[in-house]
Amino acid sequence: MEELNELINKLGTKNPVVIHNLKVILQKKAELLTEIQLNSRNFKLIFLGPLQERAKEFRRSVYEANEEIKAAYEAMKSQRQPYPNVMLESFIAYWAEPDQNLKKMRFEDQKYWSLKGRLATWYRKSIYSK
How does pLDDT run along the chain (130 residues), one tens digit per residue? Predict the structure, then answer.
């Protein structure tokens, strides 16, 4: 409870309703809190969502990145073609695998993560490993 009060003091709010709501939220979801973003007037609490929702979001972001590559390909008419769906599905299956505690997916445990960079590497390795 003392850590909770210290955290609320760092956020700098004096509003009793806000303080009460923060205490309720943080007591219920403390283990899911991943980040607190502070600026001079505001703060944002970032929580891990349920694993299935985060996996869906990851799948969506992979396909969205592929769509961006398709659009860039059309605009540039370069040699770069969008990734095949079979490759995207194997990428998703690998990187969306949950850990033993079912709290995080493999990509969430990476210190550095660039979706487009990982897709490019996955594609390059899948081409040359055949």
Answer: 566 666 667 666 677 777 777 777 766 666 666 666 666 566 666 666 777 777 888 888 888 888 888 877 776 665 556 788 889 999 999 999 988 888 889 998 888 989 989 998 998 898 877 6
Torsions phi, psi for 105 (to 5 deg): -90, 160
Would you state the structure tokens that stand for residue 45, as one six-digit string? 């609490």
Q: What is the reported pTM?
A: 0.47
Return the closest-CA partner of residue 91 out of 128, 117, 53: 117
What phi and psi values does residue 124 have, to the nearest 5 degrees?
-60, -45
Distance CA 43, CA 53 (A): 24
